[in-house]
């Protein structure tokens, strides 16, 4: 059901979660040539989640449910904390097609159903776009379709990151391009800032430049810069001027140095390394430690068999002293052009 206008706030990821939404893969087009391997990587991901937060796991049908159940049981997952729900959608990237849950002035959750058009890059699929409304029915929570100037707004969860206090991170590359992967033709920064104010309670938008190489979303923020508390961000950075990501990450660093939080104070920037290039079939993949997922009791971090894995895990652990920090092998998963944060979405 649709809901009337209220005052909304988008919580920070580290605030209390009802569960984490995952879709178990079955479509080989998401991971061509690696689907069977990726399934077991997913099992490990879901298993680790299940011991730290309840999991809402979408499976294609009854047969798929039986297969996935057996895989999870074989791997000793915490089955009582995994709620399987049958829903068939071809894409696994719940961060973008899944619901964004905000809280109204009474602290009641409302599901925002932004339009998902497959990153303005791939063929539109109604089953992907319908995920938020389906979850609204499962959770028996109201939903709202954000509209601006009589147009339904296109927005992916990976395009934004918030501190829960009024500040939001996003990129010009993703939201302001008027030639490539255009989400909302004609929208200005002022338009987006009004949308973020109305639906997220955001008063301060921090515009960064470009995202990292290999990212088919055209600049999602969750691949390189994340809030870890109300005043601190982890920012990927490389000090190798020959690295393909060097110029973009340096520009983002300079922008953050000049930016201010909603209270006028400067942002604390903690540098996060990048792994060495991860390639498959002659493609540079968007491997990044910033695509971590914060849950109630743990932070799950993608790792890549790289010397910087240990360094990244230590840095992230220093920012979350009250949570376990767990590395999840993502060399196979990243072939889908995303990893842990892209695959999941917290539900309130």
Helix content: 25-40%
CATH class membership: Alpha Beta
The rough form would be described as: globular
Question: N- to C-terminal separation?
Answer: 17 Å
* CATH homologous superfamily title: L-arginine/glycine Amidinotransferase, Chain A
* Rg calc: 19 Å
CATH topology: L-arginine/glycine Amidinotransferase, Chain A
Question: How many DSSP-defined strands?
Answer: 20
How many structural domains does the protein architecture include?
1
For the record, the CATH architecture stands as 5-stranded Propeller
Q: What string gives the helices and strands in order?
A: EHEHEHEEHHEEEEEHHEEEHEEEEEHEHE
Query: DSSP strand (E) fraction?
Result: 15-25%
SSE-based structural type: alpha/beta
Instruction: List low-pLDDT spans.
Output: none
Widest sheet, order of strands? 3-2-1-20
The biggest beta sheet is recorded as: 4 strands, mixed
Kindly report the average pLDDT value. Answer: 96
Count up the helices. Answer: 10
How does this structure look, described?
Helix content is 26%, strand content 22%. It has 348 residues and is α/β, with parallel strands linked by helices. It has one domain (19-347): L-arginine/glycine Amidinotransferase, Chain A (5-stranded Propeller). The protein has a 4-stranded mixed β-sheet with strand order 3-2-1-20. The longest helix is centred in the first third of the chain and has 16 residues, at 35-50.
């Amino acid at each position: 059901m649709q809901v009337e206008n209220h005052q909304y706030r988008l919580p920070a990821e580290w605030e209390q979660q009802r569960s984490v939404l995952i879709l178990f893969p079955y479509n080989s087009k998401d991971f061509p040539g690696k689907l069977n391997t990726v399934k077991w990587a997913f099992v490990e991901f879901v298993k680790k989640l299940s011991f730290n937060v309840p999991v809402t796991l979408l499976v294609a049908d009854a047969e798929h449910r039986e297969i996935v159940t057996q895989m999870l049981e074989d791997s000793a997952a915490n089955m009582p904390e995994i709620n399987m729900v049958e829903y068939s959608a071809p894409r696994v990237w719940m961060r973008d097609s899944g619901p964004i849950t905000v809280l109204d002035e009474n602290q009641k959750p409302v599901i925002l159903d932004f339009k998902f058009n497959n990153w303005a890059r791939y063929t539109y699929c109604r089953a992907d776009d319908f995920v938020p409304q389906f979850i609204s029915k499962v959770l028996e929570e109201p939903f709202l379709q954000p509209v601006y100037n009589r147009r339904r707004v296109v927005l992916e969860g990976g395009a934004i990151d918030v501190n829960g206090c009024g500040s939001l991170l996003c990129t010009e590359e993703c939201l302001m391009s008027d030639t490539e992967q255009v989400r909302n033709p004609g929208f200005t920064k002022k338009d987006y800032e009004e949308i973020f104010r109305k639906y997220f309670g955001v008063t301060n938008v921090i515009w960064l430049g470009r995202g990292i190489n290999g990212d088919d979303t055209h600049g999602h923020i969750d691949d390189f810069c994340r809030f870890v508390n109300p005043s601190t961000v982890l920012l990927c950075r490389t000090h190798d001027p020959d690295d393909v990501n060097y110029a973009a990450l340096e520009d983002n660093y300079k922008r953050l140095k000049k930016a201010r939080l909603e209270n006028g104070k400067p942002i604390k920037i903690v540098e996060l390394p990048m792994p060495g290039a991860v390639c498959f079939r002659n493609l540079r993949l968007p491997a990044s430690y910033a695509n971590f997922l914060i849950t109630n009791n743990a932070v799950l971090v993608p790792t890549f068999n790289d010397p910087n894995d240990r360094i990244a895990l230590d840095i992230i652990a220093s920012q979350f002293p009250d949570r376990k920090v767990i590395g999840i092998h993502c060399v196979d998963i990243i072939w889908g052009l995303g990893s842990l944060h892209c695959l999941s979405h917290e539900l309130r």
